[in-house]
Specification:
single chain, 76% helix, elongated, mainly alpha, 10 helices
Length: 217
């Protein structure tokens, strides 16, 4: 057996181990919070030795930041896959916003909030988290633009997309301690109409005084 062939299963096992550890980390953040998420607890939950976990992620900060990045990438891929089956008509915007709203009430959002709060007083975590959140924010903005087919060259469109994400984030926070689904649905219904009027592609209207070559003939 060649060296390259023997290394392939090892790389696959290593990738599988990392995936289990990262998934376990997010689950711990959601269930136990930042203070209750320890490398020992994560290793036990993932079913790997603590040595194996520390080999991939030597510190708690490295572990949780990698976990949020991993889940953010996975969730973005899932949203794109779900969006592939959405209609292309006027109802598409409603369904895209509903999909994104669910992302701001899921485990990724809860885990991220735990890190945001902890990072406020933890300099090491904050230093690692700020660039990651900037990256995730840019990717979520780009994803929303793509799903809506929005043209950011038009005035106000970019700001409307960002306002949408800010609104969804705020509604996600409001939903943490109690079921806020009724109020959220009403607010999103209102915002969807506003957003549609901003991002909709304007129809080309022929000026009544315009004269084409064909008209002259």
């Amino acid at each position: 057996m060649s060296t390259g062939t023997s290394r392939t299963p090892q790389r696959e096992r290593s990738r599988a181990t990392r995936a289990r550890v990262l998934e376990a980390t997010v689950e711990c953040l959601v269930e136990r919070g930042w203070s209750g998420t320890t490398t020992t607890v994560v290793a036990a939950r993932a079913g790997v030795s603590r040595g194996a976990q520390l080999h991939h992620y030597p510190t708690k900060t490295a572990l949780v930041v990698a976990a949020v990045e991993h889940l953010a990438e996975r969730r973005a891929a899932e949203i794109r896959a779900e969006a592939a089956g959405l209609p292309s008509g006027p109802e598409r915007l409603d369904q895209v916003i509903d999909m994104l709203a669910s992302a701001f009430t899921g485990p990724l959002f809860v885990a991220a909030l735990e890190l945001w709060v902890a990072g406020r007083t933890d300099p090491e975590l904050r230093k690692a988290l700020v660039p990651l959140e900037a990256l995730v924010g840019r990717e979520m903005h780009r994803l929303t633009v793509d799903l809506l087919g929005a043209d950011e060259r038009r005035p106000g469109v970019r700001e409307a997309i960002q306002a949408t994400l800010d609104l969804l984030r705020g509604l996600g926070v409001a939903n943490l301690l109690s079921d806020d689904s009724t109020r959220r649905a009403a607010l999103l219904g209102l915002w969807k109409r506003q957003l549609a009027s901003i991002v909709a592609t304007p129809r080309r209207v022929r000026h009544p005084l315009a004269v084409t070559t064909a008209d002259r003939r």
